[in-house]
UniProtKB/TrEMBL annotation:
Signal peptide location: none
Gene3D superfamilies attached to this UniProt entry: Tetratricopeptide repeat domain
SUPFAM superfamilies recorded: HCP-like (SSF81901)
UniProt organism field: Scopulibacillus cellulosilyticus
Keyword tags: Transferase
Protein name per its UniProtKB record: Glycosyl transferase
InterPro entries: TPR-like_helical_dom_sf, TPR_rpt
One Pfam family from the record: TPR_8
GO MF, one example: transferase activity
Length: 293
């Protein structure tokens, strides 16, 4: 046929998206070179999407687009691309972390294969996933030093290094990498939340509030169109919940209540948000006010 549609073995097309796909096929113009679709990668206990990006899923056969890379191959696509609202759902049944990709890369290193920037990035990811954190930092930095990586991968590399330092309680080492991510594109909500978390842990509430507040104002649709990875919590309920914590520590219970209510709109069944609602309603009443004032 004129177009190729690709999926991984653990990807599915849910019924609603099948209908959208059929409708797309019915009016797809022959001038289209590729169709980008949402890729829903992770979900919470209620089935809501928590992590996603975009992939070019439907591509014109006559363009002979090719796959590149030894691991996590990517399809290099160009031309007239449209951005659809069709979703592909990742349904992995894996119960344990495989070392297959790590072994592939380490065998390449033993053979003296020169890594491309993409290889450096994905090898660092494998090291990160297998908790080889010092090696992960080394190869993320090697990747960043090439200045040839996709901006989204550069942003994610900075985030992963920052997370390693945050996990080891070395907050001051994490901050420069988060700020470095801003050199590749506008700030992302997850990076702002990292900075908010760091400053909250330092009890520097003014800075924590600044970064969490910025996270609430960023445009997720812009990142979505670029194809970047999206941590949906950081664009919705999480920064509001953390702003609630900050304002509560300052004794500003009405502002804390407001942000908790904003978080509750996105995540109404979250136990922390429900607890905060009851706590803050009681606190405001005790001070002679009303939480709806």
């Amino acid at each position: 046929m004129d177009y190729i549609f690709w999926l991984d073995a653990d990807d599915v097309v849910l019924e609603e998206d099948r209908k959208k796909f059929m409708a797309l096929k019915g009016h797809l113009d022959s001038s289209i070179d590729a169709v980008s679709m949402h890729y829903n990668l992770a979900f919470n206990s209620e089935g809501d999407v928590t992590f996603s990006n975009r992939r070019n899923r439907l591509v014109k056969r006559s363009n002979h687009f090719k796959w590149y890379g030894a691991v996590h191959e990517y399809l290099e696509v160009g031309g007239n691309i449209i951005y659809s609202d069709i979703c592909i759902t990742h349904k992995s049944s894996k119960t344990s972390l495989s070392d297959r990709n790590l072994r592939i890369y380490e065998n390449m290193l033993k053979r003296g294969v020169t890594f491309t920037p993409r290889d450096l990035y994905y090898y660092a990811n494998e090291c990160y996933d297998h908790q080889l954190f010092e090696r992960a930092i080394e190869y993320y930095n090697n990747f960043l030093d090439t200045n040839q990586g996709w901006s989204e991968d550069c942003i994610n590399a900075c985030a992963k290094i920052a997370d390693i330092f945050i996990e080891s309680d070395d907050m001051d080492e994490a901050i420069p990498y988060i700020l470095k991510s801003f050199t590749y594109d506008l700030p992302r909500a997850d990076q702002c939340c990292r900075l908010g978390y760091i400053y909250l842990s330092k009890k520097d509430l003014e800075k924590a509030i600044f970064w969490y507040d910025l996270a609430t104002k960023l445009d997720v649709k812009r990142v979505e169109k670029i194809g970047g990875f999206i941590n949906h919590a950081c664009y919705t309920w999480l920064p509001h919940l953390q702003l609630c914590v900050c304002y509560d520590l300052l004794g500003n219970y009405r502002s804390a209540f407001y942000h908790n209510e904003m978080a509750r709109k996105y995540n109404p069944n979250n136990s922390s948000i429900i607890y905060n609602k009851n706590y803050l309603e009681t606190k405001i009443k005790e001070l002679g006010g009303h939480y709806a004032d």
